[in-house]
Amino acid sequence: MRTLRQVLFYLFLLAYLIATPVAILYALGYIWAPGAERGLVRSGLIAIASTPDEAQIHLGNSRYTRRTPTAIRDLLPGIYNLRLTQRNSDAWQGEIEVRAERATVLDHIILLPANRTPQPLAPEVWSQMHSEPGERNIVLESPRSLLDWAMLDASEGRLRPLLPTTSAWGDAHVLQTWFRKDSPHALFQVQQHDRDRYLWFDFSAKEEEPLDVTRLFLNAPDEVIWDPRTHSEIYTRAQSRIHRLSFKDMAIFPDCAPPAKGFALNRNHLYILNFSNSLLRVGSEGATERTDYLLPTALAATLTNDTYAIHLLPDDALLVRNTTGALWLNALSNELAPQGVRQIVGDEKEDQWLVVADHALGLLGLNAQEKSEPWSLQWIHSQDQTIQRAAWIHDDTHILFSSQGRLLLLALERGGEGAPRNLGPVGAQGAFYFSERTGYLYALNEEGRLTRLRLLPPRSLIPLPLHAETRE
Amino acid sequence: MSFSYTRMGIEGREAGLQRFLEILPGATSWCILITMLVLGLSAPQLAAAIVIAFNLYWLLRLAHSTIFLILSYSLLRAESETDWQQRLLNLDQEDIPSRRSRLLHRKRLRALQQLHQKPQDPTDIHHVVIIPIARETADIIEPGLRSLQAQDFSTQRILVMLAVEGRAAENVRRDAAELAARFRPYFLDVHVALHPDGIPDEARVKGANATYAAKQAATILRAHNIPFDRATVSCFDADTVVSSGYFSCLTYHYCMEPHRTRASFQPIPVYHNNIWEAPSSARVLEVGSSFFQLIEATNPETLVTFSSHSMSFQALVEVGYWPVDMISDDSAIFWKSYLHYEGDYRAVPMYTTLSMDVVSADSWLDTLRGLYKQKRRWAWGVENFPLVVRGFLHTPRIAFREKIKHIIKMFEAHISWATWGFMLSAFNWLPALFAGREFSSSVMYFNAPRISGLVFNLAGLALLITIVLSQLLLPRPPSRRPTLFRILHAAEWLLVPVITLFFSALPALDAQTRLMLGRRMEFWVAGKGKKAHPPAS
C-alpha cells in the first residue's frame, strides 16, 4: 500500500504539474496551432446568442453543427465573417473582429422574422397611441369622442374601451393628455359642452369612470408632472406658477414653489429653475434650498427666458432642454446638442440614456472609471428623415424607432450591422409599442388601424446556458 | 521527555509561541478566503486562474482518495468475513481462506519474524472498556453493553468502566448504577467511576472523566494481578455498539503488533445505530466521515486516532492518561503518546467497524444544529496543532522529516477542511458573478467555467463510486421497500455541495476562528439517540 501510495503520489504530481499550466494557458486563450502558425498562439472567441435561438452558425468558410447560443473558441485573431441563419428568419451577417485573449460577445442578436406582415387587430381607426401608462397598457386615441378611445393590454392582447359605455364623459373631446412613464395614471384635458374639463384616469382599475378634478385647475397647465409611485398628487406649471394638486383631499396648494421656467420631480423634491437661473430644491413641506452646485455659472449664463425641461440623472447630473431642443448637461462645459432634441429615454438599468433628436440618435452614458469626464454623448445614428419616436428594446441592446412611415431597428452590439434594419411601414404618427414579455410589436398602420407583429419569441423564464461548439 | 501536553502553566516565550500557533490555522484560512474574495473582485482573471489550479488539485486529490477508498473498502470486506476468535486459536497459522486476509496476516507475521518475535499469547490479554457518561441514559448505553456481552471473546476478561460525571443528573447516575448491577455478572467487573466535578486543573471535558475512570481501572487491574502490558483500554462513546468479534479482532491486532505497547488501534467508525432515522444531510455527512476514516486507514504512517478506539493500557498509564483540559481527547491521546515516546508510537488500522449514533434530535432544525456543533467539536481538534508543534521542538529524537511530514499533514488537513468548501462553491463562481466589463469580455471568463465544469463532471465519477460504496456499507433499511430507501439515499448525495459548505467548511472555520480569537469551546455533548427518546448524549 505504501509503495502504491508513493507511485500514485508522483504520478498525480506529474499530472498536476502538466495539467495545470496547460489548463490555465488554455483558459487564457493559448492554443497549439497547426500548419503555418505552428506553435503556441494566442486565440480569442466569439460568444453568440440570438433571438430566436437555435440559429445555424457560419463563420468564414466553416459551418458549425451546434446552434446559438454558443461560444466559438480557439479562433486566431483577425476579422471573421459571421452569418446566422434560421428557417423563417432573415439571415444576420456581420464582420466580427477577434482579438487575442478577448471574447467578442454578441449575445443579443435579433433574427428578424422573414415574414414581417403585421396582423390587424381591430377594424377601428385610431389617430395616436400612448404607450406610457403602466408597464403593459397602451391607450389608443380616437379622432372622435372619448367614448371611442380604447385601452390595449399588450401582455394579453385584449382591447377594451377606455370608458364604460354609460360614462358621462363619452361625448367629451380630448384636447390634451399627460402620461408619465411607469405610472398607471393619466391626466386628460377634455372639452364637453364647450367647457374645459380635467379628468384623472386610473388604468389599473378596469372600466372605471375617471375622477373629475376640474375644480383644482385655475388655469390650463403648460406642464404636469407626478411621481409614478403616487396615485393622487400632481404638480402643475401654469404661466410659470407651480401648484400642487391633491386629488385625495381635492385640494390645491397654489404657488407651492417659486415661479419657474422649468421643473422636475425627484424623490419628493421639486427642482425649480427660477427666473434668476438658479436651481432650487423644494421639499414636500415647502422648504427651499439653493442647489447651485447642480447648475454651474457658465451654464446658468447661457439660459434665456425660454421654458426648459429638466431631466435629473444620477450622481447630481442634470439635463436641461429648451423649446428648440438645445440640450445641456451640467457636468459638461459645452452644450450637448444645439437643437432638435425631443426625447430623453433612460434604459432599464438607468445607466445610459437615449437622446432622440430630429435627425439623430445619441447615447448618453456614465463611465464611473473616467474620473475627469465621466459623462459622454455619442451620436450613434443620423439620417436625413425626421425621427419620430424611439424606444429601447431587447434588454436595452437595440433601439426601435419610427421615421417617415417606417419602423427601424438599430443594434447597439459590436459587430452588428451599422445601418438600422427596416421592420416595415408604420402610420404617419410613427406610433408603436413593443412588449418585451410577449415579443409583439404593436403599431398603427397607414390607415390608423392597430396591427401586431411577432418580432421576437415570448420571454422564457429561465435563460438557457451556452452550448459547447463543434465544427463541421 | 520533559514536554507536558497541555497549554496550561506555560509562560514567556513558550506561551507566546502557543498563542501564535493557535492563531496560525485560523489566520491562514481567513487569509486564503479574504485573498480569494479580494482577487475575485479586483483581479478576476488571476482569481479564475487560481480557481482552475485549485480545481485540478482537488480533482487529483479526490481521485487519489477514491482509489484508496476502494482499496480500503475491499480490505474491510475481506476482514469482515474473518472469524477472529478462530484466528486467535493459532496465530501462527497461515492457512486462511480469504486471499486478501491471508496476505495481511502473513505480512504481520513477517514483521514479527523480522524482529525475532512471536505473536503475543492471546489467552492472557484483558480489555478495559471506558464509557464516559455525562447525560446519557440507559436507553443509549444499554445497546453498547449488550454488544459487549455478546462478544465471542471471553467477557470475563473485559473490565467495563462506566465513567459517570459527578455533575450528571440523578437519573443518569441511577441508570449507570442499575446497568452496572445488571451486567456485572457477565464481565470481569462493571464498575461505576463517579468523576467528581471541579478537580483542579481539569476542564469539563470527556478526557478528564475518562482519565479518572482509567486510574480506577488501573487499581482494579492491579488488584487482579493483570499486567498493564497485557491489557488494552478502549474509550468508547456511550452510544458505541461493537460487533461480536470486535474484541477478538482487537486481541488479534494487539498480539500481532510487534510494538503493541506503543500503539493505538483504530477501527472504522460507522454510524449505523440510527442511520435510517436520521435526516438525509446527517446520513450523508456521517457516511462521509466513515469513508474519510477508511481512506485514512490505508496510510498507517500518518494515521491518527479518532473517536472510539483502543490502545495499550500500559501506554495510557505511561503517558499520563488523556489530557484533562482538551476537548479532542481522541486525537490528543495519540499525539500525547507520540510525543511521549518521541515518535515511537503509531496507530494501527483495524479493518473492523464499530457503530455509533448519528446526531438526531426531535426536530429537523435541532438535528442540523446538533450536527453543526458536532462537526465544530471535531474541527476543534485543531487545538492539537500548537501543542504538537511545540512538542516537536522538545523532541530532538524525532526525525526532522517526520516532524515536517506530520506538521504539514495536520496543518493542510485543517486548512483544507475550512476552505475547500468555499473554494469549490462560492469562489468558483465569484469571478464570473462580479465580472466587470473587462473580465467579461476575456477568453478566461468563458473558458474558466468550462474547465471547472469538466472537473466537476469528472468528480461526478468519484461521487458515483462513493454512492455505490455507501450502498454496500450501509445496513439494510428497516422498510418494506428497502430498494426505494436505497434509491432515495443515493439521491441524497446530491446534497454534498451544500453539506460540505455548511456542515464541514463552516464549522471548521468557526472552530479555527474561535481558537484564533481565544474563545475556547466549552465541551458540548452531542445530542444522539433515536428520535423517540428525549435528547441525550
Can you offer a commentary on this structure?
The complex is a heterodimer of chains A (472) and B (537). Chain A has 472 residues and is mainly beta. Chain A has a domain at 2-107: Immunoglobulin-like (Sandwich), CATH 2.60.40. Chain A is 7% helix and 46% strand. Chain A has a 4-stranded antiparallel sheet, with no helix packed on it. In chain A, a hairpin with a 2-residue loop joins strand 36 and strand 37 (406-411). The model of chain A is unreliable at 464-472 (pLDDT under 50). Chain B is of the alpha/beta class and 537 residues long. Helices cover 58% and strands 10% of the residues of chain B. Chain B contains 19 helices and 8 strands. In chain B, strands 3-2-1-4-7-6-8-5 form an 8-stranded mixed sheet, sandwiched between helices. The interface between A and B is medium-sized, with 30 and 27 residues.
Write down how many β-strands of chain B occur, each being a DSSP E stretch of 2 or more residues. 8
The share of residues in helices of chain B is 55-70%
Number of helices of chain A: 2
Identify the CATH class of the domain at 2-107 in chain A: Mainly Beta
Salient structural properties:
heterodimer, A: 472 residues, mainly beta, Immunoglobulin-like, 4-stranded antiparallel sheet, 2 helices, 41 strands, globular, disordered C terminus, B: 537 residues, alpha/beta, 8-stranded mixed sheet, 19 helices, 8 strands, 58% helix
Summarize, please.
Chain A is 7% helix and 46% strand.
Protein topology:
The complex is a heterodimer of chains A (472) and B (537).
Chain A: H1 2-28, E1 30-33, E2 39-42, E3 44-51, E4 56-59, E5 62-64, E6 70-75, E7 78-85, E8 92-98, E9 103-110, E10 119-120, E11 128-130, E12 137-141, E13 150-153, E14 158-161, E15 173-179, E16 185-192, E17 195-202, E18 211-212, E19 223-225, E20 233-238, E21 241-246, E22 251-257, E23 262-266, E24 269-273, E25 279-282, E26 288-290, H2 297-302, E27 308-313, E28 317-322, E29 327-329, E30 335-337, E31 341-346, E32 352-357, E33 360-366, E34 375-382, E35 387-393, E36 398-403, E37 406-411, E38 421-425, E39 432-434, E40 440-444, E41 450-454
Parallel strand pairs in A: 3-9
Antiparallel strand pairs in A: 1-2, 3-6, 4-5, 4-7, 7-8, 10-41, 11-12, 12-13, 13-14, 15-16, 16-17, 17-18, 19-20, 20-21, 21-22, 23-24, 24-25, 25-26, 27-28, 28-29, 29-30, 31-32, 32-33, 33-34, 35-36, 36-37, 37-38, 39-40, 40-41
Chain B: H1 12-42, H2 44-80, H3 84-89, H4 99-114, E1 126-133, H5 138-149, E2 158-165, H6 170-183, E3 189-195, H7 206-223, E4 231-235, E5 241-242, H8 246-256, E6 263-270, H9 280-297, E7 309-312, H10 313-319, H11 329-340, E8 346-355, H12 364-379, H13 384-393, H14 400-424, H15 426-433, H16 437-440, H17 443-473, H18 482-492, H19 496-517
Parallel strand pairs in B: 1-2, 1-4, 2-3, 6-8
Antiparallel strand pairs in B: 4-7, 5-8, 6-7
